[in-house]
Amino acid sequence: MGVVIIDGSTIRDFVNDEAQFNKSVDEAFTKLDLNNDGVLSRSELRKAFETLRLIETHFGVDVATAPEELTNLYDSIFDKFDCDQSGSVDLEEYRSELKKIMLAIADGLGSSPIQMALEDDDQGFIKQAADLEASKLPQQPSSAGP
Length: 146
Ligand SMILES: [Ca+2]
Description:
By secondary structure, this protein is mainly α.
């Protein structure tokens, strides 16, 4: 269990780092596609959100939320992702909607840092965003040019 401090720019930098973001999204998508048919079903996507814990952080749902309310929430999320209403979410849909959500979270956070407790084995996007920021810190120039 560790604690990371993130703000909007942590997440925005992660999303805007296209190579890193796409790689993370691809990996997550592959893992979530439990039956390997190349698309995410309703239940696969629901699992994704339960794992990512984006709901708790972004949508403000507390643990006391009734199961049927949660199901409605997950249904509406699925419909958002499934842009062409094909009944499944492909990689493109997943990536573009995730990007929107991450940027919305970034806007929500703004420049006020928040603390987040993460499991050591957390592979969620928030953790990856924090890791990416941490990995960049030592390389930042201390002064502006020569
Ligand atoms: Ca699938």
